[in-house]
């Protein structure tokens, strides 16, 4: 691989000491889809039990807010369990073609104890990547019981990932789905600029200038670069622009929840200005990865308008493992041309709009969107929050839930020429997922829970949408139906192997377009009336 270069513009010894001077760039043996930045880097030491050394590194990184512990190529023996703490990812060096030549973890503990403690347990927002697990004393001809190799100690909605763990050589399902789509986006160059070296600090009243200086320096490089902001909460009173070829990078290498901490930018600009300048603007061919954004002055019980949190300014932009805890408007990849965009895991709570994608004449990719008001409510105790005026609980729910059902448009696809959407879920919205204009999209595995209009269709004549393996739950004070075609809907939409419930209409189509329900399950929902513009075939109706 190319040698990794680190550009460090040291402004003061204090800045280095304050925010994570231990972070370093790792030159891996095998290619990676990102620049590996680790808070701790460990090498094999020949110990009979490497668990205490790894656990110590994990604990240190967790105390500092999270990040990566990297295990270099080699073999590591483990006799005792390891707990991967919140916000920490343990990464190794990995090749699918030669997995045993990378980072190999040899597990000896727990032999004969099936109910014992797992070799590796994962807390919220933690992860494992690029590791090979091997049991040297296990025999295929006479296998014996062991505890779980990996076990989660987390709520399924709280983030985390297990990825690139060695097994057989077959391509993972998600990689097969991505066949023909460009490789994971990242800067072409391996240079890394540390925001701390430009004055970014957890103690600063405003980090906008420091982070922007780092971004501007990265933008001057020939092949682009990464700007790394270590774990912590950073106040930003202004807005940021990520130059072309640059990635703004935080400490999270896996999906994460607001309660997990990590790198969080505390945005205060634009209060009351819905059409103001977005907090983070991505120039053509730039992206953000592993960060969170939180609005500390946003009153949760009585939310007010803010500009978009993130906006792409041209084609080829990307987002990976981003959490937006309480955005009025989350991600705008539609105001400007967004050809070749790629969004892979955006989570959060939103008040008006979650993710808007469109204005794209080529293939775009969106996967792993997770929206729920609990991202505004289940918080790290260190996160500054404005709860707003105290309001009564409504039918067992915080008042933010009915607000979202009145206001929120969760996922909006508008004028997308060839969009692929995989694995999305949202809870509490007025419109769950909307298809507008000249959109041609294929959607696989989508969930919408408690929305007034689960899927909304406003397609032009040339619009064509195919949805498979969906679950849509129409509920709320203003509920209309699971699938709603507006009066202007003139396109062609089909929902296959999709379940709807409870006792509300399955589909209402007020336009002249076609809505096809194929191999659907109406669990308590009423079916479209005979002669309506919604066509059904092979419908199973259950109570």
Give me a quick take on this structure.
This protein is mostly beta strands. The chain has six helices and 37 strands.
How is the secondary structure organized here?
Blueprint: E1 6-7, H1 13-18, E2 24-25, E3 37-38, E4 40-42, H2 51-63, E5 67-71, E6 74-78, E7 82-84, E8 88-92, E9 103-107, E10 120-122, E11 127-129, E12 132-134, E13 150-152, E14 161-163, H3 173-177, E15 191-194, H4 208-219, E16 225-228, E17 232-236, E18 240-242, E19 246-249, E20 263-267, E21 280-282, E22 287-289, E23 291-294, E24 308-312, E25 318-333, E26 342-371, H5 374-377, H6 400-407, E27 409-437, E28 440-459, E29 464-474, E30 481-485, E31 492-496, E32 499-500, E33 507-509, E34 514-518, E35 521-523, E36 534-537, E37 540-542
Parallel strand pairs: 1-15, 4-5, 5-8, 6-9, 7-10, 8-11, 9-12, 10-13, 11-14, 15-16, 16-19, 17-20, 18-21, 19-22, 20-23, 21-24, 22-25, 23-25, 24-25, 25-26, 26-27, 27-28, 28-29, 28-30, 29-31, 29-32, 30-33, 31-34, 32-35, 34-36, 35-37
Antiparallel strand pairs: 2-3
Taking all Cα atoms into account, the compactness measure Rg is 24 Å
Share of β-strand residues:
35-45%
What form results from the Cα inertia axes? globular
Helix/strand class: mainly beta
Helix content: under 10%
Cα(first) to Cα(last) distance is 59 Å
Number of strands: 37
Largest sheet: 24 strands, parallel
């Amino acid at each position: 691989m190319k040698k990794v270069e680190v550009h460090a513009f040291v402004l003061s010894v204090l800045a280095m000491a304050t925010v994570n001077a231990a972070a370093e760039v790792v030159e891996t043996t095998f290619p990676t889809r990102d620049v590996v930045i680790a808070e701790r880097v460990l090498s094999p030491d020949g110990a009979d039990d490497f668990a205490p050394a790894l656990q110590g590194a994990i604990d240190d990184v967790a105390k500092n807010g999270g990040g990566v512990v990297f295990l270099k190529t080699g073999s590591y023996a483990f006799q005792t369990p390891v707990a991967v703490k919140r916000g920490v990812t343990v990464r190794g060096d990995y090749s699918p073609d030669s997995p045993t030549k990378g980072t190999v973890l040899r597990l000896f503990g727990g032999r004969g104890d099936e109910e014992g403690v797992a070799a590796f347990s994962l807390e919220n927002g933690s992860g494992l990547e690029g590791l090979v697990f091997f049991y040297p004393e296990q025999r295929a001809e006479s296998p014996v019981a062991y505890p779980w190799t990996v076990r989660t100690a987390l709520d399924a909605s709280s983030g985390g990932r297990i990825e690139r763990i060695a097994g057989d050589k077959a391509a993972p399902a998600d990689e097969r789905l991505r066949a023909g789509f460009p490789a994971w986006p990242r800067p072409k160059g391996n240079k890394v600029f540390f925001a701390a070296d430009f004055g970014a600090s957890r103690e600063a009243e405003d980090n906008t200038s420091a982070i922007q200086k780092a971004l501007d320096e990265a933008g001057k490089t020939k092949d682009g670069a990464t700007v790394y902001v270590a774990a912590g909460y950073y106040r930003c009173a202004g807005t940021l622009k990520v130059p072309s070829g640059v990635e703004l990078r935080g400490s999270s290498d896996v999906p994460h929840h607001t309660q997990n901490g990590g790198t969080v930018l505390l945005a205060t600009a634009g209060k009351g200005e819905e059409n103001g300048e977005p907090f983070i603007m991505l120039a053509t061919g730039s992206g953000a990865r592993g960060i969170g954004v939180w609005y500390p002055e946003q009153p949760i019980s009585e939310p007010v308008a803010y500009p978009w949190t993130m906006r792409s300014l041209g084609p080829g932009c990307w987002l990976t493992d981003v959490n937006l805890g309480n955005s009025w408007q989350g991600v705008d990849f539609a105001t400007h041309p967004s050809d070749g965009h790629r969004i892979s895991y955006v989570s959060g709570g939103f008040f008006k709009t979650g993710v808007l994608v469109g204005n794209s004449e080529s293939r775009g990719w969106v996967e792993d969107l997770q929206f729920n008001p609990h991202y505004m409510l289940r918080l790290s105790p260190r996160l500054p929050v404005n709860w707003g005026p105290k309001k009564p609980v409504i039918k067992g729910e915080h008042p933010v839930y009915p607000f979202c059902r009145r206001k929120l448009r969760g996922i909006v696809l508008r004028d997308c020429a060839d969009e692929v959407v995989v694995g999305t879920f949202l809870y509490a919205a007025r419109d769950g997922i909307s298809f507008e204009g000249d959109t041609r999209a294929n959607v696989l595995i989508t969930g919408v829970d408690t929305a007034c209009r689960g899927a909304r269709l406003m397609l032009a004549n040339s619009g064509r949408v195919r949805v498979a393996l969906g679950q849509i739950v129409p509920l709320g004070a203003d509920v209309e139906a699971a699938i709603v075609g507006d009066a202007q809907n003139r396109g062609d939409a089909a929902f296959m192997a999709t379940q709807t419930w409870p006792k509300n209409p399955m589909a209402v189509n007020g336009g002249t377009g076609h809505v096809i329900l194929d191999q659907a399950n109406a669990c308590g929902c009423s079916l479209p009336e005979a002669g309506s513009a919604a066509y059904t075939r092979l419908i199973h109706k259950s109570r």
